[in-house]
Backbone:
């Protein structure tokens, strides 16, 4: 019944049947870290890119 799941990164067989990520526990952790870093990075980029616009828009709103 059970089809073998293999980690998408390292090809290791995933024994956890509830695993839906397609990643072995090792790379699940890595993925979580990367996701966290990516979120932080995109937030940083977003602030740099849109910060001034948001700030000026907020100033306009206040002036109204
Ligand atoms: Zn793996």
Residues:
């Amino acid at each position: 019944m059970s089809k073998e799941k293999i980690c998408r990164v390292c090809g290791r067989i995933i024994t956890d049947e509830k695993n839906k990520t397609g990643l072995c526990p090792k790379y699940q952790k890595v993925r979580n870290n990367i996701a966290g870093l990516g979120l932080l990075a995109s937030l940083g980029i977003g602030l740099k890119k849109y910060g001034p616009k948001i700030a000026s828009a907020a100033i306009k709103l206040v002036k109204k």
